[in-house]
Design brief:
The structure holds 2 protein chains of 2 kinds.
Chain A: E1 5-8, H1 15-24, E2 30-32, H2 35-40, E3 43-46, H3 52-61, H4 64-73, E4 78-81, H5 83-86, E5 91-92, E6 98-99, E7 106-110, E8 119-127, E9 141-147, E10 149-153, E11 159-165, E12 167-175, E13 178-181, H6 189-204
Parallel strand pairs in A: 1-2, 1-3, 3-4, 4-13, 5-7
Antiparallel strand pairs in A: 5-6, 7-10, 8-9, 8-11, 11-12, 12-13
Chain B: E1 5-13, E2 16-17, H1 32-41, E3 47-51, H2 56-70, E4 77-80, H3 86-95, E5 99-102, H4 104-108, H5 111-120, E6 125-133, E7 140-144, E8 149-154, H6 155-165, E9 169-174, H7 186-195, E10 200-203, H8 209-216, E11 223-226, H9 228-231, H10 237-246
Parallel strand pairs in B: 1-3, 1-11, 3-4, 4-5, 5-6, 6-9, 9-10, 10-11
Antiparallel strand pairs in B: 1-2, 6-7, 7-8
The chains are: A alpha/beta, B alpha/beta.
Chain lengths: 209, 253
């Protein structure tokens, strides 16, 4: 059985935390920038901090954009985290209307200016519907956020978790086996680790939603 | 609702916590890894490590220590003290720090803020400002080199400049209050929180629960950092959180 867990290594941020989170759950992840490995893995985690357009440039340059899009098309388990959520969308405003992976159609917009930016700290996630990814996690649980942009998917049913900061935005997204969080589960204590655990069970157990 | 953050701070030298602690239940109170775990399990929202190591050899120890800490610390970790270059920043981020705090080097070379933000993202560039009220009471001056050297900079102007250059957060220490445990400089905290549109962490001077409340409420800080109040066992993170919650401050349970 394919149990390979891959973390996409495209030079975007603190991969070590994600590795540590997966390890703490008893799995050994592989860091890779190899498109073939990304297409074939049982579970792929796409992390990321930093700037949206720069991330897209790197993903394209390394040939990873196509591999990720292929996973999206085939509905293979993929977890985007923070910037890894935003690049799944159609276009980002960050860096001036830059095309993204378009696995989930929609826009990435700047947070409203009436609050401090970045939105940084622990905030709550309202669960808009039940989902495997939320198993064992109470409604309105706290997660650690740090971001200035948010995703606005065309298909509102893809928004399964929402958070309030000036306005309500999509903090958890699910489209088939493609799941993504705007917060950092690897920085969100035991609740965050549980979310990673849920994703891995979903991916390795072969269940889809 | 976004909650305000409670951030314990550890002063670390050559890989050891140097400020005295009174956690008698800990096997080794000087081990940063053990203390980090203690605060993580105790409900802290983030952790700051201030590296006061003087030698380059000691700095390697710090990076190794950050690596060990981050293995089990699933909350944000900021490391500051003595960082001078993009390479220094990268080394600590690679070791597992989520953010780095720049102080003297940012004053000397403000480009370090913009270059760091461009390369690693604003979210991981914290600018630490050590400020002291001027003798004539007209505003606050910025000090560098662990508060030993007065600069020409005005604290409020420098905070604005740092934010413009791409800092993601300001760690504001009032030197008048620091270590005296008689309250944060509320006026300074309020002025800077108002002037910049990035989060401000108030630091220096927390002696009581009321002090922490004042910095968050009246001072408008997004987070409070404290060392002595936690290290000397006066209050636990849980006690602080309970108190602030009772007084109406949004706090993560």
């Amino acid at each position: 059985m394919n149990t390979k867990i891959v973390i996409v290594d495209y030079g975007a941020g603190n991969l070590r935390s994600v590795v540590n989170a997966v390890r703490s759950l008893g799995h050994e992840p592989h860091l890779t920038a190899d498109p073939a490995e990304i297409t074939s893995a049982a579970a792929v985690i796409l992390p990321g901090v930093g700037e949206g357009s720069a991330a897209m440039t790197e993903l394209t340059r390394l040939g990873l954009a196509e591999a990720l899009q292929e996973r999206g098309k085939r509905n293979l388990p993929l977890l985007g985290v923070c910037l890894g959520l935003q690049v799944l969308m159609g276009t980002t405003e960050e860096g001036g209307d830059v095309p993204c992976l378009n696995i989930v159609p929609g826009l990435v917009r700047k947070l409203p200016e009436n609050h401090k930016i970045p939105h940084m700290g622990w905030n709550q996630v309202k669960q808009l519907r039940s989902h495997t990814i939320f198993e064992g996690i109470p409604d309105n649980a706290y997660f650690y956020f740090v971001h200035s942009y948010y995703a606005d998917p065309q298909d509102k049913t893809a928004v399964i978790g929402a958070t309030d900061y000036g306005e309500q935005f999509c903090s958890v997204l699910a489209q088939g086996s493609v799941i993504a969080t705007q917060f950092h589960p690897e920085k969100s204590g035991e609740t965050g680790l549980r979310l990673y655990g849920n994703f891995l069970r979903l991916a390795l157990g072969g269940r889809t939603c | 609702m976004l909650t305000r953050r409670i951030i314990p701070c550890l002063d670390v030298k050559d890989g050891r916590v140097v400020k005295g602690t009174s956690f008698l239940n800990l096997r080794d109170a000087g081990d940063p890894v053990e203390l980090a775990d203690f605060y993580y399990k105790g409900g802290a929202d983030e952790l700051v490590f201030l590296d006061i190591t003087a030698t380059p050899e000691g700095r390697d120890t710090t990076a190794e220590m950050v690596e060990r800490i981050s293995e089990k610390l699933f909350m944000p970790l900021t490391v500051g003290g003595g960082l001078r270059s993009i390479e220094d920043i990268q080394k600590l981020l690679r070791a597992g720090a989520d953010k780095v705090s720049l102080n003297t080097a940012a004053v000397k070379n403000p480009q370090l803020i913009s270059e760091g933000a461009a390369r690693f993202g604003s979210q991981c560039i914290v600018v630490a400002i050590d400020a002291r009220r001027r003798e004539n009471e007209a505003g606050w001056s910025v000090y560098v080199k662990s508060g030993q050297t007065l600069t020409e900079l005005d604290a409020i102007e420098w905070a604005k400049k740092a934010a413009e250059l791409g800092a993601g957060e300001i760690l504001l220490t009032s030197m008048d209050a620091d270590g005296h445990c008689c309250g944060y400089d509320i006026e300074l905290t309020r002025r800077i929180s108002k002037e910049v549109n990035i989060p401000v962490i108030a630091s220096g001077g927390a002696g009581s629960l009321e002090d922490l409340y004042a910095a968050l409420d009246e001072g408008g800080a997004d987070a409070v950092l404290a060392a002595s109040i936690f290290h000397y066992g006066k209050h636990s993170v849980a006690e602080v959180k309970d108190y602030l919650k009772q007084r109406g401050i949004p706090i993560r349970p």
